[in-house]
Design brief:
about 425 residues, alpha+beta, 2 domains, about 55% helix
Length: about 425
């Protein structure tokens, strides 16, 4: 008994698979017999899939470029600058009270466990003289951690050290551009230049600051001269700002809170006093960009779905026409024993295949558009590509459109009275 039951189930499965394959073959024959009409019918699906895949590819490429830029720039960076509050007892304070001083940052990393590095920076305009050549340049005062924060290691010589900063040594780092402008030797480490009539020893050669396609940079691209911060502070007492890094991007908010607490203490702010400094975390900008990119992708996809719906209506219309044209054929099939489910499956499979055909052509067109966008240099879309999930989504939408808009014509075909259908001319 059990063996007979299993045999019936196996036979039923075989007949079901055979029926599906037969429906696919019949649908393919109908589509091939009406090639022009089929292509025009699927035009809405083609445009919809091409649009959604190319838009997603462009956004994916742009997102990859931006994420790479943020990664190189440092997503765990925290910028801190002195800022006069609009209210409170420091609202009208002079800049000498509001400005940062080196003492306010002493021992910061020891008291802020989430902060890995911190540097005070300041930029001043100065005259540089060597062998009769005089240039006006922007000199940047930095502390030893600056090298790790900016990932700027020296090409020759050594970096600025803690001893250079604490002992106010008159040493400097220069870039190849400034070296060439001053007509120094290629191996200029150990030579001296005059900076505001003070002799500074060149201890290292720094590589040029890599240009960012998005303009992300922590130091001025015009600055080819780097001095110990404390030395610059002693000579000019400039307006300083700080750059810190958290131990990981996930700890950025913790590092920000610790920095804020420490600076309020070191600047002797009362509990009711507003902050006399501003802070900005790069991870926040990255999170905002990712949210914006996701929102744009969803909005663009939503708009493009309208095109798919329009294409689905076109398919439903042509399937209704097909049912009308093949009414006599349906009657003959029913007369020889075809079940309504077989007729329903045939027309439903045909609608789905039409949608899949449109999806395949649309995906190919979308890939062509993506390749064209990737070839435009100014578009910064060289990393544009259609992600696998977008391909699956496109075909998923196409299948859904085929089922939703093909079910009504298929039902109509399956419910035709065979006698009435055979009389149809």
């Amino acid at each position: 008994m059990a063996e007979r039951k299993r045999a019936r189930v196996s036979l039923g499965r075989g007949l079901g698979i055979g029926l599906v394959l037969q429906s696919i073959m019949l649908a393919a024959g109908q589509i091939w017999a009406n090639k022009t009409r089929s292509i025009l019918t699927t035009l809405g699906i083609i445009i919809g899939v091409a649009s959604v895949t190319s838009v997603i590819a462009a956004l994916t490429g742009l997102k990859a470029v931006v994420l790479d830029e943020f990664e190189q720039f440092g997503t765990n960076k925290i910028f801190v600058w002195p800022d006069r509050p609009e209210t409170g007892r420091f609202a009208d304070a002079s800049w000498r009270i509001i400005r940062f001083t080196p003492e306010q940052f002493a021992g910061l990393t020891e008291h802020c466990p989430s902060v890995e590095y911190v540097t005070l920076n300041a930029t001043v305009t100065t005259n540089v003289v060597y062998a009769g050549e005089t240039l006006q340049v922007r000199a940047t005062g930095v502390q030893p951690d600056w090298h790790a924060i900016e990932n700027r290691t020296v090409m020759q010589g050594r970096p600025i050290t803690t001893a250079d900063d604490e002992q106010l040594r008159q040493v400097c780092l220069i870039t190849p551009t400034l070296r060439d402008k001053l007509k120094l030797d290629r191996d200029c480490v150990g030579e001296s230049i005059l900076v505001d009539n003070r002799r500074f020893l060149i201890v290292g050669l720094l590589p040029e600051n890599p240009e960012s396609s998005l303009g992300l940079s922590s130091d001025s691209s015009e600055s080819g001269l780097f001095l110990p911060f404390q030395t610059v502070w002693r000579l000019h007492e400039p307006w300083a700002y700080a750059i810190a890094t958290s131990r990981s991007p996930e700890l950025s908010e913790d590092a920000r809170a610790e920095l804020r607490f420490y600076l309020r203490l070191s600047r002797k702010l009362l509990p009711d006093d507003p902050d006399t400094f501003g802070m900005e975390v790069m991870q926040q900008h990255l999170d905002r960009f990712q949210s914006l990119a996701t929102g744009i992708t969803m909005a663009a996809s939503g708009i493009v779905i309208i095109s798919l719906v329009v294409g689905g209506i076109g398919i439903m219309n042509i399937m209704l026409v097909s049912v009308s044209e093949r009414t006599r054929e349906i009657g003959l099939r029913k007369a020889v024993g075809a079940r309504p489910s077989a007729i329903l499956l045939q027309f439903l499979v045909e609608a789905i295949m039409l949608c899949f055909l449109g999806g395949a052509i649309g995906l190919g067109l979308g890939q062509g558009i993506t390749m064209g966008l990737a070839g435009i240099d100014v578009a910064m879309l060289e990393k544009a590509s259609i992600p696998p999930w977008a391909m699956l989504m496109s075909f998923g939408f196409a299948a859904a459109v085929g089922v939703i808009f093909g079910i009504f014509p298929a039902l109509k075909a399956s419910q035709l009275d065979p006698i009435v259908a055979l009389r149809h001319e």
